[in-house]
Amino acid sequence: MTGRARDLLTDADGEGGVLATTSFQITASVDREILDILAAPPHPNLQDLVGARAGGASRTALEAALGDARGSPLYQLIDDFAGASLVANGIWASWNPAWDPGPSRRKKMEDICTGFAAGASSLLEDGTVHLAVLSRAEVGPLEDPADPLSWHELPMQVGPKMRRARRIDLWREGDVIKVDAYFQDSGGMPSGMRLAIHEYRVYAEVEEGTGRLLALQALPLVLPFRECPGASVKATRLVGRAVADFRASVPEVLGSTLGCTHLNDVLRGLADVPLLATLLPKGG
């Protein structure tokens, strides 16, 4: 897995300046255990993550090893390893229908999220995923030729490769920080098409003085099962909470059937908004 991130500040004239960049290379097992990790710029405790399995374990290890880097692109990027690796193996089934993901990928999923609530159309009788009803949508390139700074360069992907693309844009309006966040999990198909399985747009307003969430709107664009969009409405339960605490409070407030694993990843990432807002020029 390759990850890249940057912080970009755009001034009133539309000129962009890169404030920070980072990247990582992770080799992981099929069961999503970190076998090897490199990052640029490096962090002295990075190798403490080797052996951690994606999910709660990798995020606990990340906090212990790189807690001093919270708010940096590196922390944000490695934090997302848990969710990105969850969907990464799915690409193999599109290229090789006979591929066996192993017992850990055929486990019961009942009640782990809104889309997999008991009785949902997404589940078979034994509680495993009903892949025959899974939905995806064709998507085009993310880059906007009219706005070359909108994304950093995204390498062409050929073959069975998946990509998680995310952005968090913010600006100040008076004493309110406005946020426009975007999220997409997609992969290339043997036909040459690119299909998305998860895609969200999230708008938020944060009170700058207190860091509290004032308003939230989560728009589901592409999701795999018909029950999945229900999580977007429940996300408003976060209104009134401190955004800086979202990495802990989102799974608490929107756990199990109240949330969507992938929407929760978007919302958890908003924890960096108060710190990023300090980089905005006053009145900008």
Would you give an account of this structure?
With 284 residues, this protein is α+β, with helices and mostly antiparallel strands. The chain has 2 domains: 1-88; 102-284, no CATH class. Helix content is 21%, strand content 28%. It contains 8 helices and 8 strands; from the N terminus they run E-E-E-H-H-H-H-E-E-E-E-E-H-H-H-H. It has helices at 56-66, 73-79, 81-88, 90-95, 230-234, 246-253, 261-269, 273-277; strands at 2-10, 16-28, 34-40, 137-138, 162-173, 176-188, 194-207, 213-222. The strands form 2 sheets. Strands 4, 5, 6, 7 and 8 form a 5-stranded antiparallel sheet that branches. A 3-stranded antiparallel sheet has the order 1-2-3, covered by helices on one side. The longest helix has 11 residues, at 56-66. The radius of gyration is 19 Å and the shape is globular.
Summarize the structure in short.
With 284 residues, this protein is an alpha+beta fold.
Fraction of residues in helix: 10-25%
Structural class: alpha+beta
Number of domains: 2
Radius of gyration: 19 Å
Number of strands: 8
Mean pLDDT: 92
Could you spell the SSE succession in H and E letters?
EEEHHHHEEEEEHHHH
Total helical elements: 8
Layout of helices and strands:
Elements: E1 2-10, E2 16-28, E3 34-40, H1 56-66, H2 73-79, H3 81-88, H4 90-95, E4 137-138, E5 162-173, E6 176-188, E7 194-207, E8 213-222, H5 230-234, H6 246-253, H7 261-269, H8 273-277
Antiparallel strand pairs: 1-2, 2-3, 4-7, 5-6, 6-7, 7-8
